[in-house]
Amino acid sequence: MTIGYGDQAGYDSTDTAVLDAAHAHDARLRESGAVMGIAGEPVQVRNHQAAETTTRTGAFLRSELPLAGFALIEAPTLADAVAMVSQSPCAVANGVVEVWPLQD
Fold this sequence. Notes:
InterPro entries: Dimeric_a/b-barrel
Number of domains: 1
Protein name: YciI family protein
Low-confidence stretches: none
Strand content: 25-35%
Largest sheet: 4 strands, antiparallel
Helix content: 25-40%
Number of helices: 4
Radius of gyration: 16 Å
Organism: Actinoplanes sichuanensis
Strand order of the largest sheet: 2-5-1-6
């Protein structure tokens, strides 16, 4: 699973050709089966001791950059996953992409 972070200022300061290539790269990832989406407003869900479900709008995690989106990709190794996301918009537009390997 990947999580992309980036802000509008970083995006706007990136060369248009670099952004075009990054968006084309994401399109190719989608065509190969990656599930990608822009982050919406999060909802925190709690059900401590299975006693009562409560919700709160807003992120639990905090970051220097806003959360931009998520992707589920399949790669044989972590190095392959890193290579796959290194050309994505968040990675090239002054943001960051986290790769979270899912364990069996």
